[in-house]
Write a structure and sequence with these properties.
Layout: H1 3-34, H2 44-51, H3 55-61, H4 65-80, H5 88-101, H6 105-111, H7 115-123, H8 131-153, H9 160-176
Length: 185
């Protein structure tokens, strides 16, 4: 590798690290602010000041304050979407472990009105499936989303292991039933 190529590689790594630090600083500051403020009252100037980031640093990475949250929701939803196998219990285990890991963020995301963004990101798993399976997958995603809401409303008080068992019992019949529907005209 030439010295010019090495300099370019080092610059790229430096830019990537700078981007990561800016995003993480903004994310931490925003979650901290959401504990005491509504999302609508948080201005970019206040967020950047709390994060120790320039406004230019914010705008190089995001357009709106809520975009900081959307970025984080994508990460959480990517983890939830890993639950895609045929073993319902294993899927619930993955989902609940992910949700529990983010149990401090999820109520703040919901408080900020980001519930539909969470569902939208979870539903991204339906983008690449055939139409016949898409509706079933979106219904399953709705169950997942509503279980997340229910658990968050209960302040994650339920033991995740017990909840996996309960949800597996409840949802297994829904996912394993074959039926045909008739429509009266």
């Amino acid at each position: 590798m030439t010295s010019k190529e090495k300099r370019i590689e080092n610059l790229q790594r430096s830019n990537e690290e700078s981007h990561r630090l800016i995003v993480e600083s903004l994310r931490q500051a925003l979650y901290s602010m959401l504990k005491t403020q509504d999302i609508d009252s948080i201005k970019v100037v206040d967020l950047t000041k709390a994060a120790g980031v320039s406004r230019g640093g914010f705008y190089r990475n995001f357009y709106l304050v809520t975009d900081v949250l959307k970025d984080d929701i994508r990460v959480i939803a990517d983890d939830v979407r890993q639950a895609s196998g045929t073993d319902v219990g294993a899927n619930w285990q993955i989902i609940l472990n992910t949700v529990y890991k983010h149990r401090e963020k999820i109520p703040l995301l919901l408080k900020a009105g980001m519930g539909m963004e969470i569902l939208t990101q979870i539903n991204r798993s339906a983008e690449y499936v055939n139409e016949e399976y898409k509706l079933r997958l979106m219904a399953w995603n709705g169950v997942i989303f509503n279980c997340i809401l229910w658990w968050a409303e209960r302040n994650f008080a339920d033991d995740p292991k017990e909840l996996v068992q309960r949800l597996t019992e409840i949802t297994s019949p829904l996912l394993n039933v074959s039926y045909t529907a008739s429509v009266d005209k």
